[in-house]
């Protein structure tokens, strides 16, 4: 009986070693460890042996059973690993469609807006997100006592610098490095101490643009922004400019468009006025020119700034800004590639 067990062990281990597929290894398991397997039959016949022989044969048979179970398990894992690496592919399985990523809706709108302005001669530049008080406030004619500079509104760092609150910082840096004519747009992240809700976020995106040259007029500013609004929201959109105030522009205005949700009929989004504000703009303040070494008597210019989240929400009729930052695939998959 013991010699028979040794023969079964040798044959089984040899067969397991030669197995080249999961089907082969399953056949070996059934042949030796199945209900009618060779080793199983030996185990069934142990009860008819003498006491001493039964003890020896039983011990040996159980050891061989554990050895074969371990060998089968290891061989099975090895064969499954080959399949993962592509060396053993089951062509009968259905194919898997690869998941294709999509651009974020804010990126889609930013690219579209940049394309609109580059078509009329604007150049795209970048600026730092960690900024000094000078470039973020002082050079833009924002005085020390202005509420925007308060720690309740701005994220200050330990070294005295801050996270920029607007992309307007790019204006000063570009004008310091070059001379007019300058037609620039820039977009990126900005940071303010806002409590998150449906319309506010401490992190948001802003797009800034400015044009500086001799004899630049407010009429050119209006024409540029009306062109942008109709390109971005549609030719049937209506526009109007409302007087406003910004420290770095004088005169200043806000651009309103007919509500893209109700098309000017009046709804909750436009507060039943038919119009919504989309950006701020104005003629660059003479103090800004002086801070960068330009002669305000020789040069004029205009600037405009828009919140990309706001424009994206209006374009796609999104009612909660927090959706942009939750990374919900169901939301993101609704937009273009």
UniProtKB/TrEMBL annotation:
<dbReference type="InterPro" id="IPR006195">
    <property type="entry name" value="aa-tRNA-synth_II"/>
</dbReference>
<dbReference type="GO" id="GO:0004826">
    <property type="term" value="F:phenylalanine-tRNA ligase activity"/>
</dbReference>
<keyword id="KW-0436">Ligase</keyword>
<dbReference type="InterPro" id="IPR022911">
    <property type="entry name" value="Phe_tRNA_ligase_alpha1_bac"/>
</dbReference>
<comment type="similarity">
    <text>Belongs to the class-II aminoacyl-tRNA synthetase family. Phe-tRNA synthetase alpha subunit type 1 subfamily.</text>
</comment>
<dbReference type="InterPro" id="IPR045864">
    <property type="entry name" value="aa-tRNA-synth_II/BPL/LPL"/>
</dbReference>
<keyword id="KW-0648">Protein biosynthesis</keyword>
<dbReference type="GO" id="GO:0000049">
    <property type="term" value="F:tRNA binding"/>
</dbReference>
<dbReference type="InterPro" id="IPR010978">
    <property type="entry name" value="tRNA-bd_arm"/>
</dbReference>
<dbReference type="GO" id="GO:0006432">
    <property type="term" value="P:phenylalanyl-tRNA aminoacylation"/>
</dbReference>
<keyword id="KW-0963">Cytoplasm</keyword>
<feature type="binding site">
    <location>
        <position position="250"/>
    </location>
    <ligand>
        <name>Mg(2+)</name>
    </ligand>
</feature>
<dbReference type="GO" id="GO:0005524">
    <property type="term" value="F:ATP binding"/>
</dbReference>
<dbReference type="Pfam" id="PF02912">
    <property type="entry name" value="Phe_tRNA-synt_N"/>
</dbReference>
<feature type="domain" description="Aminoacyl-transfer RNA synthetases class-II family profile">
    <location>
        <begin position="115"/>
        <end position="337"/>
    </location>
</feature>
<keyword id="KW-0030">Aminoacyl-tRNA synthetase</keyword>
<dbReference type="InterPro" id="IPR004188">
    <property type="entry name" value="Phe-tRNA_ligase_II_N"/>
</dbReference>
<dbReference type="GO" id="GO:0000287">
    <property type="term" value="F:magnesium ion binding"/>
</dbReference>
<keyword id="KW-0460">Magnesium</keyword>
<keyword id="KW-0479">Metal-binding</keyword>
<protein>
    <recommendedName>
        <fullName>Phenylalanine--tRNA ligase alpha subunit</fullName>
        <ecNumber>6.1.1.20</ecNumber>
    </recommendedName>
</protein>
<comment type="subunit">
    <text>Tetramer of two alpha and two beta subunits.</text>
</comment>
<keyword id="KW-0547">Nucleotide-binding</keyword>
<keyword id="KW-0067">ATP-binding</keyword>
<dbReference type="GO" id="GO:0005737">
    <property type="term" value="C:cytoplasm"/>
</dbReference>
<dbReference type="Pfam" id="PF01409">
    <property type="entry name" value="tRNA-synt_2d"/>
</dbReference>
<dbReference type="InterPro" id="IPR002319">
    <property type="entry name" value="Phenylalanyl-tRNA_Synthase"/>
</dbReference>
């Amino acid at each position: 009986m013991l010699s028979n067990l040794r023969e079964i062990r040798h044959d089984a281990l040899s067969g397991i070693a030669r197995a080249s597929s999961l089907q082969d290894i399953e056949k070996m398991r059934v042949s030796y460890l199945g209900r009618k397997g060779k080793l199983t039959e030996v185990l069934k016949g142990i009860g008819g042996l003498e006491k001493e022989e039964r003890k020896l044969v039983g011990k040996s048979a159980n050891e061989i059973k554990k050895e074969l179970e371990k060998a089968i398990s290891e061989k099975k894992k090895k064969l499954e690993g080959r399949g993962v690496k592509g060396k053993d592919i089951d062509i009968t399985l259905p194919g898997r469609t690869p998941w294709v990523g999509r651009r974020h809706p804010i990126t889609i709108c930013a690219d579209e807006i940049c394309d609109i302005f580059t078509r009329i001669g604007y150049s795209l530049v970048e600026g730092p997100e960690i900024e000094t008080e000078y470039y973020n406030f002082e050079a833009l004619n924002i005085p020390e006592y202005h509420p925007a500079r308060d720690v309740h509104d701005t994220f200050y760092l330990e070294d005295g610098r801050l996270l920029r609150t607007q992309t307007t910082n790019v204006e000063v840096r570009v004008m310091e490095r070059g001379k007019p004519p300058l037609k620039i747009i820039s977009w990126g992240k900005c940071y303010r101490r806002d409590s998150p809700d449906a319309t506010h976020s401490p992190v948001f995106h802003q797009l800034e643009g400015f044009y500086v040259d001799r004899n630049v007029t407010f009429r050119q500013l209006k024409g540029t922004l009306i062109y942008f609004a109709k390109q971005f929201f549609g030719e049937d959109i209506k526009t109007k400019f409302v007087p406003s105030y910004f420290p770095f522009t004088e005169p200043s205005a806000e651009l309103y468009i007919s509500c893209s949700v109700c098309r000017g009929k009046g709804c909750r989004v436009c507060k039943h006025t038919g119009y919504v504000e989309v950006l701020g703009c104005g003629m660059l303040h003479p103090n800004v020119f002086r801070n960068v070494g330009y002669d305000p008597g020789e040069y004029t210019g205009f600037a405009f700034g828009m919140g990309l989240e706001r424009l994206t929400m209006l374009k796609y009729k999104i009612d909660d800004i927090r959706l942009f930052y939750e990374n919900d695939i169901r939301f993101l998959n609704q937009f273009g590639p």
